[in-house]
Amino acid sequence: MRILFIAILALLSQLASAAQAKDAPIRTVIIIGVDGLSPRGVDEGLTPSLNHLIAQGAYSFHARGVFPTSSSPNWASMIMGAGPVQHGITSNDWRLWSRAIMPSKEGVEGRFPSVFSETRRHRPDARIAVIYDWSGFGNLFDHDLVDVAADTEGPEATMHRAVEEFKYNRPDLLFVHLDHVDSAGHGKGWHTPEYFEAVKRADDRIGEMIDAIDEERAWDSTVIIVTSDHGGVGKSHGGVSMAELEIPWIIAGAGVANSREITRDINTYDTACTAAYLLGVPMHSSWIGKPITESFISAANGEWVDSKYLPAPRITPPGALLAADEVIVQLSCEMPAADITYTLDGSEPTKHSKVYSGPIVLEETTTIRARAFMRGRESRVTTDTYRLLRSDSPKPVAYEYYEAPEGQPRWEMLPDFSRMNPNSTGTCPEIGLATIDVREDQFAIRYTTQLKIDEPGTYMLHLKSDDGSRLRLGRRTLIDNDGSHGPIEESSSIDLKPGLHTIVVEYFEDHGGESLELAITGPDKVRVPVTFDHLVAPE
């Protein structure tokens, strides 16, 4: 009888918490956005603070940003409850006084309505604080609508300012932006040791906010959301890939379920809607997002899985195209007591797969998949592919390498190769940058080879580059991806007969990140990279 009485009390307590989340506004909603934080950054990184929030809250590693996968469009979508089609912010160059696409609905100052403007409109006395580490974020909202708009420098100063604001002023809505993880991705590459160190630094800062909530004994009236704007590939983002599009989404606090993985679709514009829902603010009619009510204890018929979270293994170094005869791969997990199993044939790792016991030496192109197991829990699967261009690989591609002349106008388009002499020439295994010595910026390369076709049919070629590129097949320009831009892919289809087909790829690097990838989809509808197996040296 006593056990039944205790169970009833626990149920009543849960229902009371659910009613608070559903029917009464939370006193404080804190949104912490970590620029460039990928799901792998959280899942594989040393992130005890984020793991703490996951354990006492709800989460998804498959939330999505918007296209283009650059910062301003995604931060705008996060605070505006809608995407670029509605709010009109399509690049980091967007300014209120210079815009190509007008918002579908104009609110204060001619901007699309945000969670800041709607909170101010419906709760005039609410305290709103926005503290950000990237000045570009300051272009996205009307500073007159908020009580604090602080452009800080570095994650430590940013979170210190945010913690002070929380402890001494207890705002209704506190938005915090951390920028340094994105900087590490651009500087050293996503999912490199330096990137994970930056993630750890962000996690430490988030821990400071958790400590502040603990000290104030405020968890019964506070909800914290941690998310991001985009991920990255190599040293860049802005392209069309799952690694750039998917973001983590974590929520914890009053009325939020414990250790609940949300399986329904989550979009970044749902963040504004969830914050408004918690604050008792009506959602603007032009918002397309919706609150993630599946996060709350009271959610009925929601899409979630209640389970104990275990961080996924980290694979070091990250998968890549490597000009090397071998690569040494190491696996690790934030939980040192966890067992890690892995496969090298692309199959799903189980607890019966090979157990990791030390560095793995790969001497050929390989996909490694790993999973952690501990005390009945299992992690998500981590996957990385290593494509090795060995020193003894065939070299069927001829290339000419050019550098922009000093004192001449900067290259912002492909140069006229017919009017220049190459700085160097040679051969390489495939069309790409891995095996060619290049300077940092302002260079161009022209590749010539022959594509070998065995079966007749319709083929699609995919050319992805940062910056511009162009592909000719025979005398036909099949893909024109020119201009100074981030990693953008263009594709084109063509009917091909069996035999050899001459292809020429022209590429140039303006500044910032650089990349060049060529892939092909055959009549079998399977997309694969164009490797030396597909190519024959030009005659």
Please write out the topology.
Layout: H1 2-23, E1 28-34, H2 39-44, H3 48-56, E2 57-64, H4 71-80, H5 84-87, H6 115-122, E3 128-132, E4 148-151, H7 155-169, E5 173-178, H8 180-188, H9 193-215, E6 222-227, H10 242-245, E7 246-253, E8 260-262, H11 270-279, E9 304-306, E10 314-316, E11 321-322, E12 327-332, E13 339-343, E14 354-355, E15 360-362, E16 366-374, E17 377-378, E18 382-388, E19 397-403, E20 424-428, E21 443-453, E22 457-466, E23 469-473, E24 476-481, E25 488-496, E26 499-509, E27 515-521, E28 527-529, E29 535-536
Parallel strand pairs: 1-5, 1-6, 2-8, 3-4, 3-5, 11-18
Antiparallel strand pairs: 2-7, 6-7, 8-9, 10-12, 12-15, 13-14, 13-16, 16-17, 16-18, 19-20, 19-21, 21-26, 21-29, 22-25, 22-27, 23-24, 23-26, 27-28
Major sheet characteristics: 9 strands, mixed
| CATH-assigned fold name of the largest domain | Alkaline Phosphatase, subunit A
Q: Tell me the distance between the termini.
A: 89 Å
Strand order of the largest sheet: 4-3-5-1-6-7-2-8-9
Number of helices: 11
CATH superfamily annotation of the largest domain: Alkaline Phosphatase, subunit A
| Structural class by helix and strand composition | alpha+beta
What's the pLDDT, averaged over the residues?
Answer: 93
Number of strands: 29
Low-confidence spans = 1-22
How many distinct folded domains? Answer: 3
